[in-house]
Sequence to fold (184 residues):
Amino acid sequence: MGVSLRIGVSLALAPFVLAALTGFVHAQTVTAPSQPTSTSPLAPEAADAANPVAYCADLQRVIALALTKERFATIAGKSRDGNFLATSLPLTGWKDCSLYGLRTYTCDSRDLGSAEEGASSQTAIVEEIKGCLGESWSEDQDRSSSTYVVLRSSRGPVSMTISASPNETNGYVVRLTMFLRTGG
Fold:
């Protein structure tokens, strides 16, 4: 098979690989990114296959990129403080999305006023993410705690933590941190 034919076949199969990796093998209706269902990452009623949250498609793309040979290199932007890089693929409705090296992606929710609001929002966001990513993602009870939740993919070496964290303005944010696992 010639190089151009192999590339063409690879490109044709890319959507199917993405669907398999994210657990969306079944048919679904997806809202176009230009028409988000919510501008906030807090819309639990929208977190199902027929009506995904606004950031669902972005999150699926980030996961697919994490599993490529290039990892996050294709969405890496300018240097930020420390070892962080800006990203050209932020999650819709989230803020301060960045990369730490080529194995870690992080974003913060909108600002929240209290620890209680942070905990409530964390619970809602975990449910949104589970609804977005499907059954191939599950909570890792052994690694989760009262302050953060660990979600793991059964189809690839990628995990994420979702935690309510204090921010610099005496409020809270929910922080999503996606990373590539090593050794299983």
Q: What stands out?
A: Residues 3-180 form one domain. The first strand starts at residue 76 and ends at 79.
